[in-house]
Amino acid sequence: MKLVSFDVWNTLLDINVMLEELTRALAELTEKEVSEKVMEARGEIKGLRKSKRGNPEKALEESQEILAKKLGCDVEIIKRAAAKATLRVDERIVIKGAIEGLKAAKERSLIIITTGNVMFWPSAYTRLILERFGLADFIDKQFYSDELKAYKPMREVFLKPLEYFGVKPEEALHIGDTYAEDFEGALNAGLWAVWVNPDAEKVERIAEKGFVVRNAGELGEVLELV
What we know:
Elements: E1 3-6, H1 15-30, H2 35-50, H3 59-71, H4 75-88, H5 98-107, E2 111-116, H6 123-132, E3 141-144, H7 145-148, H8 155-165, E4 172-176, H9 179-188, E5 192-196, E6 204-207, E7 210-213, H10 219-223
Parallel strand pairs: 1-2, 1-4, 2-3, 4-5, 5-7
Antiparallel strand pairs: 6-7
Helix pairs in contact: 1-4, 2-3, 3-4
């Protein structure tokens, strides 16, 4: 194993904390009840991407426009709310086990990257949050769908970062919380894969090159097995 790729949201950072602040900011800016519309927009976007009907070239813009349409507001309001949310999140956003997982990879001298999708806010904001709470100190390079012009589970979103480092798929492992996007996407691209499932009972092999863990902090146990 030469490289470990981490999904960000719900693997390292808690998406619910960010969405909570985004929803609060949107409510302030629109003076509307927006929670249900935000969840509807998320579901629609995930459906578009799963069916490959979304536009990888405009992954961020597309999601912002969908949310703006549901709220009946200008896209600028979505952008402002995302900025406010980024400024407001606190230490609750760091998921249990995140630092331990990053340390486990670092202790084995592995290349550490992020491979993340974007929705509603640009990858630059995710970078800021990772810096603010010290997670970026463990990461060698970050890759996101708005920069790669592709999104998980597309093969290229996993393979382009590996090409950058000259690493073969079988020499890399991706860990993430979404079964279709992260686990199946990584396996289909030829990588090893780890599914973060808080409901799992233990660290367990669930495919020839796939494992399940309860949180990223159990990554060290997986790395002993691959």
